Amino acid sequence: MSAKRAPGRPGRGALRAAGLFAAAVAVALQLTGALAAPEQETIGVRTRMQRPRPPRDVVVVAIDEASFQALRHSWPLPRSRHARAIDRLRAAGARDIVYDVQFTEPTRPAEDLALFRAIGRAHGAVLATTEIDHGRTAVLGGDDNLARVGAVAAASALPVGSGGVIDRVPFAVDGLPSIAVAAARRAGRTVRRGAFGGGGAWIRYAGPPGTVPTVRFSDLLAGHVDPALLRGRIAVVGATVPSLQDVHAT
């Protein structure tokens, strides 16, 4: 993938990333391989009939419109703001951090260094990207830099199914594990390529919008989020503003 993205451009959706991680952790890889057309048509119906199951180990940190208003800043946000968010999550006892914002292009050195150091203080994170070169990336200057702070890059692109709906998660994209796989592995789960089949694993969603616990990015920065909502959870940070085109049908 060679298309260039603006510095700090959002990934492919924090809410979706959280759902994918929850799917991976919940071993939602049981439905693999090609299904008959009638069975494919019933998947959506069966999903809607299920009772919502809020994940206990995931929380979304939403960079929403209210956050931009509170911070009095438009996109992209300075990387020092992301650094501060990571420090807040670390202090609150978040188990791990999945950042669905792409950091491939350099900005001001002081801003880039602030983010790099914050990730190091948090003992690493999963960082999203769609720019991949046979498994290697340019996130924060490259994979060697990421290794120094215990971070890993992960593929955020997802295949779009029939009707423009995202219903599967790949094991990897161009040799780079997907966000779901990378996050699950950091959480100590065993995720095997063979469970995904040729077209990816079916996503087993926790429920409709609002099912996954969500806090506001600006509230996190201001210290207005109860640490109990973050402690022991995987925090998935990303943009949820429709104008950034990061909200997708699932």
Summarize the structure in words.
It is built from eight helices and ten strands. The chain has 250 residues and is α/β, with parallel strands linked by helices. Helix 4 (79-92) packs parallel to helix 5. The chain is 32% helix and 14% strand.
Terminal Cα separation, in Å?
Answer: 23 Å
Helix-strand makeup class: alpha/beta
Q: Strand-and-helix sequence, N→C? A: HHEHHEHEHEEEEHEEHE
Strand order of the largest sheet: 4-3-2-10-1-9
Query: Low-confidence runs (pLDDT<50, min 5 residues)?
Result: 1-5, 23-37
What is the typical, i.e. mean, pLDDT?
84
Give me the count of strands: 10
Helical stretch tally: 8
Overall 3D form: globular
The proportion of strand residues reads 5-15%
Quick summary:
The chain is of the alpha/beta class and 250 residues long.
Keywords:
250 residues; alpha/beta; two-stranded antiparallel ribbon; 8 helices; 10 strands; globular; disordered N terminus
SSE diagram, text form:
Elements: H1 14-25, H2 37-49, E1 58-63, H3 65-71, H4 79-92, E2 96-100, H5 109-121, E3 126-129, H6 143-148, E4 152-155, E5 168-169, E6 172-173, E7 176-177, H7 179-186, E8 201-202, E9 214-216, H8 217-222, E10 234-239
